[in-house]
Amino acid sequence: MATITSVVDTTTTTNQGKAGDTVQINGTALSTTARVNFGAAVVTPTSVTATQVTFVVPSTAPCSGQVSVSVTSTAGATSNALPFFVLATPTTTGTSVTCVSAATGGPVTLFGTNFLSGTQVGVGTVGNVAVAPTQSSQVTFTAPANPGQVGTVSTQAVTITTAGGTSTSGTTLIDYYLAPAITSVLPTSGTADNQITVNGTGFVGVDTVTFTDSAAATATAVFTPVSGTQLVATVPGGLATGAGSITVHTCGGNSNAQAFTIT
Length: 263
Known about the structure:
This protein has 263 residues and is mainly beta.
């Protein structure tokens, strides 16, 4: 009668794998194998020799957990059974940040399930990052820069690949932002509480407008977004008179410092 000595997934080289993986059953007296018993499923082997049987983990395999693997001969005799562990497909639920700079990328923590056997995180068309998760529900990685970005905001899908497969693309997203740029301010000088029109590009998701005075002191301004190319800022009080500047900040970083004189 057939005896099984090991069950090895050819992808993971262990007795763990996922649906669609090829598995080798090693043992003795296997040449008359007619079927593989994978838990409750009956699977037709893809190859049979006296010492090895191969089969593909069926799509009907459990999402995760242990199953027993044995073989049954043409005469109806069934071998001993050995365990095989079905690895769960990972899922993603969100990230610690919603956006990063296109110029630099940045640190991101990805949240989800079944991460422990993770090998890489994919960030859309930007690239892949090697990871080695120590927790099943999260992993921290550095999102790569996106130097070829053209639009102000580029939305990318974040996925993770483990021995159990790749998470569904589109479930978790992250935005890459180009840094804003100021082209002009009108008027070019003013005093506290004056309203200044700031023109430029990349004014999407602006979180801070900063005035710097002649003594290099800074103050954040109250501002109103108008469009992706314009906003209106109120000159803050408490700044020294003289030549200074204005900058605009988004998730993409700081803009250039545009000259502005405090009067």
